[in-house]
Write a structure and sequence with these properties.
Layout lengths: L2 H10 L8 H20 L4 H13 L5 E2 L6 E2 L1 H12 L6 E2 L8 H15 L3 H19 L5 H5 L4 H17 L4 H14 L5 H5 L3 H21 L15 H5 L3 H6 L12 E2 L9 H12 L7 E8 L1 H5 L12 H6 L1 H11 L4 H5 L4 H8 L1 E5 L1 H6 L6 E7 L4 E6 L7 H25 L4
Helix pairs in contact: 1-6, 1-9, 2-4, 2-5, 2-6, 2-21, 3-4, 4-5, 4-11, 5-6, 5-8, 5-11, 6-8, 8-9, 8-11, 9-11, 14-17, 17-19
Length: 429
């Protein structure tokens, strides 16, 4: 078997009747979480730009731009909705693949389901399959080669996720799905310079991944052929993007579905700085006064220090720079005494900026060995009275189902929240 066949075949064979109730429930929760995140960001600059393009392109399909009466093609709808879904960086996380499957797979699956008239069961199966393949391919991004090249995991592996989800709904044969998977590789793109400069291309990367995967599935259905050894070949994905061929080949088959490993962020910020933000909250609860801090050091795992934008103590000219920075996340949580989207919108706050500038970031090798299973952070502070304070957290506290539903109503309001909850869980709050 080729490596593509090894990864894709079991995902292709996923059937709704084989999904445990907990997996079906988790897929529904991921959908309402993505819709909630999308609604929270529909008025952002990048969301408006994507929506305007869809409006100007005319109505040629059955797929909806979320929270509007705009109907367009499934690939165009997926593009806009994927831009929405990451607008405030509250998206879900699959830590073992360093990716955010919901921002790509769910917009693609919902758009393709509308276009094809799929049932709820078919939609949820496609979502589970999309998450599964993103996890499988994404494990290969846990390599030094990939991380130093500047590619973004979600925008590369997301194209495979949307392709598999769309392929399920377009009812591709296995041969067609393998071709679509291979074609996806040539459509994958996305680099991390946005994280350093705080620019808007982050959101467009998700839109491209959602749209490109659907396009790959459509082309494969029309009979287009693609390389069989697209992953392991001499000029394939592993060589081009720096994925670890060994990790792709040797990964163990999960006893459960990858979607069950997905977590929901407590902070609307980079996935790699979540523990740091909550350490800042613990410092606030301990009574630490920000003005009394002389200096501090944040010790974290390697990727948390080297990923673009995560080590930034002073350059906060744009919102995304604040969301990515370990130093800003700790400082904002301590100064504000809470973790909310407002922490990052207030990126010009002089108190937060001052404190962030006093913090350095260092790798703790022991924590690197524990990553990605755990994401430990230790913060050591020196105070003006000579006292030293240490705050350690092994893991952030992620949102549970009740928290996700609370966020749905917080972002969408009572009327829309009830509608969404009723569609997917058959209930209202």
């Amino acid at each position: 078997m080729t490596l593509s066949e090894k990864l894709v075949t079991p995902v292709y064979n996923i059937k709704y009747e084989d999904l445990p109730e907990k997996v079906i429930n988790k897929a529904k929760l991921c959908v309402i979480h993505s819709l909630s995140c999308g609604y929270a960001g529909i008025e952002e600059r990048w969301s408006k730009a994507a929506r305007t393009i869809a409006e100007e392109s005319g109505s040629f399909g059955k797929a909806s731009v979320w929270f509007s009466d705009i109907k367009t093609t499934m690939e165009q709808a997926a593009f806009v909705n994927a831009v929405y879904a990451q607008s405030i960086l509250y998206e879900d996380i699959h830590r073992d693949s360093n990716a955010h499957p919901g921002v790509v797979v769910i917009p693609a699956a919902l758009a393709a389901a509308e276009e094809t008239g799929a049932s709820m069961e078919e939609l949820l199966t496609a979502i589970v399959a999309g998450y599964e393949i993103m996890a499988k391919v994404g494990r290969g991004t846990n390599s030094q080669d990939f991380s130093t090249r500047g590619f973004r995991p979600t925008s590369i592996t997301g194209t495979f996720g949307s392709c598999i989800a769309a392929g399920h709904l377009l009812k591709l044969t296995l041969e067609q799905q393998l071709a679509a998977f291979s074609l996806s590789a040539s459509l994958a793109s996305g680099i991390n310079q946005w994280a350093i400069e705080g620019t808007d291309d982050l959101y467009i990367q998700n839109g491209n991944a959602a749209k490109a995967g659907i396009l790959a599935a459509q082309l494969a259905k029309q009979g287009l052929q693609a390389p069989k050894e697209i992953l392991e070949g001499k000029a394939g994905v592993c060589r081009a993007f720096g994925l670890s061929k060994e990790k792709l080949e040797t990964q163990k088959e999960n006893k459960d579905f990858a979607i069950m490993e997905v977590l929901f962020k407590p902070a609307p910020a980079c996935a790699l700085v979540q523990t740091t933000a909550q350490a800042g909250l613990e410092a606030a609860e301990d009574g630490v006064v920000p003005g009394e801090i002389l200096k501090g050091t944040i010790y974290t795992f390697a990727l948390g220090t080297t990923y673009a934008g995560c080590d930034n103590s002073e350059k906060f000219e744009k919102l995304l720079q604040a969301r990515m920075s370990n130093q800003f996340n700790f400082a904002a949580a301590l100064v504000k005494g809470k973790i909310t989207n407002g922490n990052y919108c207030d990126f010009e706050n002089p108190g937060i900026r001052r404190l962030a500038g006093l913090l350095s970031l260092k790798e703790e090798p022991e924590y690197t060995l524990q990553f990605p299973e755990k994401q430990p952070v230790r913060v050591e502070l020196e105070l003006s009275n000579g006292e030293k304070k240490v705050f350690y957290k092994e893991e952030p506290v992620y949102l549970n189902q009740e928290n996700v539903i609370e966020k749905l109503y917080e972002h969408c309001g009572e009327t829309l929240g009830n509608k969404v909850l009723s569609i997917f869980f058959g209930q209202k709050r």
